[in-house]
Amino acid sequence: MAFGYQILGFGGGETPRDPYSCDWLVVAGGGNGNSYPSGGGGGGAGGLRVSYGTASGGGGSIEPNITLAPGTVYTVQVGAGATSTNSGGNTSEDSFISGGTLVTADQTSAGGGRGANGGGVPNVGGSGGGAGYNGIGAAGTANQGYAGGRGNGDPGPNPGAGGGGAANTGVQASGQNAGGGGQGLATNITGSSVTLAGGGGGGAANSTFGGGAGTGGGGTGGGDPQNNSTSGQANTGSGGGGGGNDTGDVGKGGSGIVRIRFNTDLGAGYATTGTTSVGIDGTDTIVTWTGDGTFSP
């Protein structure tokens, strides 16, 4: 009798998953304030770019989504805020998502600009640094943030202007009053409203109190004789406050933040490295980086 045999096939591995669309938020590190020889300008916020909601930084429209390809490792950089011990300071860092077919420049936000010292020039950035007593605020970057505020034009030991924020320009110094930091932008990529990227307030050379902090984490400006400036809050991309005198540190910039949002079912099986947290909003997953890392769809 003849016997028939059936050859059983075995799976050849997992079925490749298709690329899927992803929303994103990238906020760069904030700029530091400045001081010597008189009230210094506040630091500008790091650039804010987002594809989710109604607006991006600097009055720009929301950005296009990105497409993630399973099997590709994407690099995430969370920019550090700028630091300073007085009128110097390092440069704030950009934040970005890069890898695969993404064009790095299309997902990069620029670090915030440093505020000016008394008669110096502030730095351009995602949002621009505030002017000292005699100058104009530095420009922000299109679709990321606004310019820093102007000085009051008086060559005496007068106050600095606020650094620019993601939602508006830093406030101009007036008389003996330092300018406040530009306001941060409310974002809802997490499903709740979170304000980020506020400018730092200017320092006041002849007043106890400096300029107010921009909403979203900006630092307050310092006064004189007590230099009580504060730094931008960590992981908000906010600028640090300007100093009222040359005897102490000025406000440092806050570090940035990166978030992505994608359909939970489509993005199942992902892996991350770095300092991350994960949230759920309806059918979507939101991954947040507060330090450098990677994402593997």
Description:
The chain has 297 residues and is mostly beta strands. The chain is 0% helix and 19% strand. The protein has no helices and 13 strands. The strands form three sheets. Strands 1, 2, 3, 9, 11 and 12 form a six-stranded antiparallel sheet that branches. The protein is elongated and about 70 Å long. It starts with 19 loop residues before the first strand and ends with a strand.
Quick gist of this model?
It contains no helices and 13 strands.
The biggest beta sheet is recorded as: 6 strands, antiparallel
**How much is the average pLDDT?**
89
Instruction: Report the β-strand fraction as a percent range.
Output: 15-25%
Helix run count = 0
Kindly list the characteristics that best describe this protein.
297 residues; mainly beta; 6-stranded antiparallel β-sheet; 5-stranded antiparallel β-sheet; 13 strands; elongated
Outline the fold blueprint.
Elements lengths: L19 E8 L20 E3 L15 E3 L5 E4 L17 E4 L9 E2 L75 E3 L6 E3 L60 E7 L7 E3 L2 E6 L2 E6 L3 E4 L1
Antiparallel strand pairs: 1-2, 1-3, 1-9, 4-5, 4-13, 5-6, 7-8, 9-12, 10-13, 11-12
